[in-house]
From TrEMBL, chain A:
UniProt xrefs under PANTHER family: CARBOHYDRATE TRANSPORT ATP-BINDING PROTEIN MG119-RELATED, SUGAR ABC TRANSPORTER ATP-BINDING PROTEIN
SMART domains: AAA
Keyword Nucleotide-binding listed: yes
Protein name: ATP-binding cassette domain-containing protein
Species in which this protein is naturally found: Streptantibioticus rubrisoli
From TrEMBL, chain B:
UniProt-recorded name of the protein: Xylose transport system permease protein XylH
Annotated Low complexity bias: 1-16
Presence of the UniProt keyword Amino-acid biosynthesis in the record: no
Compartment annotation: Cell membrane
Function as written in the Swiss-Prot or TrEMBL entry: Part of the binding-protein-dependent transport system for D-xylose. Probably responsible for the translocation of the substrate across the membrane.
Region Disordered, residue ranges: 1-31
Amino acid sequence: MATKETSGTTSPPIVELSGVGKSYGNIRALHGVDLTVSPGQVSCVLGDNGAGKSTLIKIISGLHQHSEGEFRIDGEPVRLGSPRDALDRGIATVYQDLATVPLMPVWRNFFLGSELTRGRWPLRRLDIALMKKTADEELRNMGIVLDDLEQPIGSLSGGQRQSVAIARAVHFGARVLILDEPTAALGVKQSGVVLKYIAAARERGLGVIFITHNPHHAYMVGDHFTVLRLGTLELSAARAEVGLEELTHHMAGGAELAALKHELAQVRGVDTDELPSASLGAQ
Amino acid sequence: MTMTQQAASAADAQSAPVPPSTDGRTAQRSPARRLLARPEVGVAVGAIAVFLFFFAVAPTFRQADSMATVLYQASTIGIMALPVALLMIGGEFDLSAGVGVVSSALTASMISYQLTQDVWVGVVVALVFSLAVGAFNGYLLVKTGLPSFLVTLGTFLMLQGLNLAVTKLITGNVATDSISDMNGFNQAKAVFSSDITIAGVSVKITVLWWLVFAALATWVLLRTKYGNWVFAVGGNKESARAVGVPVTFTKITLFMAVGFGAWFVGMHQLFAFDTVQSGEGVGNELLYIAAAVIGGCLLTGGYGSAIGTVIGAFMFGMVTQGIVYADWNPDWFKLFLGVMLLGATLINLWIRRQATRK
């Protein structure tokens, strides 16, 4: 697979975290995490359940505040008070379930909360024609072609719905997109659709933070990989420095994977020779 | 018909030599299927069936005067059913709507009679009172996060108690004193309860108000930001909040709209009968909800229409009066209503499945 070199290394990063941590009371959910996101770069955050991915996203998207380290946007240290704060600085989060209202038409969903109107109050009304046209153009720019913008968004497939949410975030001025497990509930083909739009967003010069626990999905689009384990950095590497197998290995945790392989070897019918090598990460 | 379709498709093929860049997987939904996707189609079909039925079995039903009575009957339910439907689309119920009507009428009547000599003072105070009850419902709902069923059940019981107790305390009776000789009575009656003649048929003015409110509700629902928010807070509250819809504002104002409806119908009752019976109104809240559901509103919120609710209330009026015109025992009315409600719900369910099928 050819590695796509982007301009990410030259332009200054939008989001920069250094040594960021978060404690809830005496529970240290996250500590010592470094992460940078530049325009036109897909930064993947991987980790098993409980690794601290959600905490990290919540800090960047403004839902929680970090309790240690430094969080900079455009080089300026910040503490975000709310998701609105993050949005105003161009950081948009697309949650897996929190994206759309299923029974509403696609174009209404696209502009929900930021509707375009015309006329003066009390006759101020939705500018339906303009909204439909804009939504259609934005979706086409992302490579999403829908036949009927009037269809309820719930009738779209999971991947398409996710893509509409991404296109919406891009339209409303996002510079950094945070995608929280966008492929988790999707099938193989649908995941492919979403990955395509992640690539499209990168082509348009956006920084993308792609949270996933699927190293295969991450490796298809990622420029930089951050693996979290037990609340801290397990791995932080550019694409050139790391292979898929190593990524998978780090993700599962070397020792645990070896133990799992050993256990599987006891079960008849599992061919452990076909599994990724457990010794690779130790090299 | 097939000829015209062929001609149309031929014209399409000629005018668009460059294939439109469509997805290719989803076929354009046929106009018939799109029509079926409208919330009010099911109830419209049902209303036509009920109309034809009573038209056939009850000769009196065919007269224009009878239709005026049916419309009047429908309008008293229909005016309230409209805000109740909007609220339901917004994902909530208001069980206090039925007694709220009587509370408003009692407030206007007693304030006017006891404190002033002008009915308009009572009318304005009643409006403030009804809006406040709505705001109270909405505020409590938003702040506590309790289901609206519980919150408004509480308000329902409180208002019911207040209606009886305060009326007895002040008038010493279960009904208020007649206000028909007070200043402004005739003006107010002209607004809320007069008769107008359309093409030789005397029609209650509430019918006109009903249609005006229905047009307004439709416009707000489909053509304004606020309408978009109503669908959104009912369809998926969390998503709506996440994209910046003012959920609290939308819910509270929806409850206040129900308060406004209760005030209007309450004023109609007051100026139609001069006095108010304090024990009335109980059970009507379910009729409003029934009209909204028959009209295609989804009980769980996020889907429905004002037009459908109008037709739902009209169907209700037809059955109420149709039974009388057909010389049947009116005791059967509630049975009919129940059958209608179930039937409409099943038809709606079926149609929605057909329409949203890909």
